[in-house]
């Protein structure tokens, strides 16, 4: 690998690999859970790894959340267990807006507990009629004379039912605001979401005229999308890291099988078509890793300036992950189809990555627009 991680990122990488090794013996069990798998959470909590996801002033490890550290951590965690990766990542995804826009009191109340994984975080964006089109959000926030009232339904929310709070986007007049909702606030209820192909802690969250203090907003009224984009600027890159970890795990399964399995009097790896599948997969894995790391490195100083690049890294890695895992299943033949095997788990886990935190089709729109703007600017400069 040509990209040279600095000493801090390498230390995080080794730390995350050690955490992943502790979860590996029960990873298959954890990855079939649609509720929090307590042994996995206990390992994550004891590791202190979640301190990567909040600023140092509130119990975190770095002055600001470091996109490269999060990216390399997710690569290691996802290789072992999607459940472990999800528990880790959501601590940052659900709490980042508090760090970026919350009051001192909000930060003091929630962020140290997030850093210790004492409380789980959730980001509530999606609704039954609002997926990629977040401007279709119907959950409403109304100012009732100094008190806020929240009503609506959020759908397919990660950590629903387990989270201690929901960072929630809502329509306030003709704009959109972000509000911090404690999970135990009167009027908050949770029902399970439909099971998906790769089990995940998901739920439908209802807000029935939930009363909140005026300072429950995160940032000023109407600034909700800005804070959501700030969150994505840091954590969308890390999805690419997780996809790299998944590819790495799948390719290891396929390479071991191809080396040990003999057909037609020779190991599979010496059969041309199989060698091609493995070589193409390794090329896509390393290309995705380099793009993910380089993008995360660039985002260290100013994540919001690199959102388009983050989208590019996420698109490239998640699309590659589906191709790579499919090839690995093909290399392994019938052994790639065995229910409960590592490769079968990777196969199911790869597919949702092209949808969450920005579906590939939506990302392509922004990426193409940025490409054309950059090219037009370059032409004008000559």
The total tally of domains equals 3
CATH level 3 topology of the largest domain: Butyryl-CoA Dehydrogenase, subunit A, domain 3
Distance between the termini: 35 Å
Strand content: 5-15%
Counting copies of identical and different chains, the oligomeric state is single chain
Q: What does the main sheet amount to? A: 4 strands, antiparallel
Number of strands: 9
Describe the structure.
The chain is α+β, with helices and mostly antiparallel strands. It has three domains: 7-120, Butyryl-Coa Dehydrogenase, subunit A, domain 1; 122-222, Beta Barrel (Butyryl-CoA Dehydrogenase, subunit A, domain 2), CATH 2.40.110.10; 225-374, Butyryl-CoA Dehydrogenase, subunit A, domain 3 (Up-down Bundle), CATH 1.20.140. It is 52% helix and 15% strand. The protein is built from eleven helices and nine strands. It has helices at 7-23, 27-30, 38-47, 67-80, 82-101, 104-115, 224-260, 272-298, 307-332, 342-350, 360-380, and strands at residues 121-124, 140-143, 147-158, 165-172, 175-182, 188-192, 202-213, 262-263, 266-267. Strand 2 (140-143) and strand 3 (147-158) form a beta hairpin. Helix 7 (224-260) packs parallel to helix 9. The longest helix is centred in the middle third of the chain and has 37 residues, at 224-260. It is globular and about 80 Å long. The protein starts with 6 loop residues before the first helix and ends with a helix.
């Amino acid at each position: 690998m040509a990209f040279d991680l600095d000493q801090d990122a390498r230390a995080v990488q080794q730390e995350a690999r050690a955490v992943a090794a502790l979860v590996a013996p029960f990873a298959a069990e954890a990855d079939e859970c649609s509720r929090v798998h307590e042994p996995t959470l206990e390992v994550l909590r004891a590791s202190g790894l979640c301190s990567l996801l909040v600023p140092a002033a509130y119990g975190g490890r770095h002055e600001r959340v470091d996109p490269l550290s999060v990216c390399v951590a997710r690569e290691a965690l996802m290789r072992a267990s999607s459940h472990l990766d999800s528990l880790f990542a959501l601590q940052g995804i659900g709490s980042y807006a508090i760090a970026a826009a919350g009051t001192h009191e909000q930060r003091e109340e929630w962020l140290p507990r997030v850093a210790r994984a004492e409380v789980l975080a959730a980001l509530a964006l999606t609704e039954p009629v609002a997926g990629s089109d977040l401007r279709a959000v119907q959950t409403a926030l109304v100012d009732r004379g100094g008190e806020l009232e929240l009503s609506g339904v959020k759908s397919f929310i990660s950590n629903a039912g387990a989270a201690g709070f929901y960072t929630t986007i809502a329509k306030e007049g003709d704009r959109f605001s972000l509000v911090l909702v404690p999970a135990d606030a009167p009027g908050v209820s949770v029902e399970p979401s439909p099971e998906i192909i790769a089990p995940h802690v998901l739920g439908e969250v209802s807000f029935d005229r939930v009363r909140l203090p005026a300072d429950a907003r995160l940032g000023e009224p109407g600034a909700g999308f800005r804070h959501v984009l700030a969150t994505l600027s840091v954590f969308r890159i890390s999805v690419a890291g997780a996809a790299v970890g998944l590819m790495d795990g799948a390719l290891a399964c396929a390479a071991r099988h191809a080396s040990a399995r003999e057909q037609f009097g020779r190991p599979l790896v010496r059969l041309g078509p199989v060698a091609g599948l493995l070589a193409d997969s390794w090329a896509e894995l390393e290309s995705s890793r380099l793009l993910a790391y380089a993008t995360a490195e660039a985002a260290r100083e100013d994540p919001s300036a690199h959102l388009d690049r983050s989208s590019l890294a996420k698109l490239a890695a998640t699309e590659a992950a589906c191709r790579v895992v499919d090839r690995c299943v093909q290399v392994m033949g019938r052994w790639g189809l065995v229910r409960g095997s590592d490769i079968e788990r990777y196969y199911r886990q790869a597919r949702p990555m092209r949808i969450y935190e920005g579906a590939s089709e939506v990302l392509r729109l922004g990426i193409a627009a940025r490409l054309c703007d950059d090219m037009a600017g370059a032409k004008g400069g000559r």
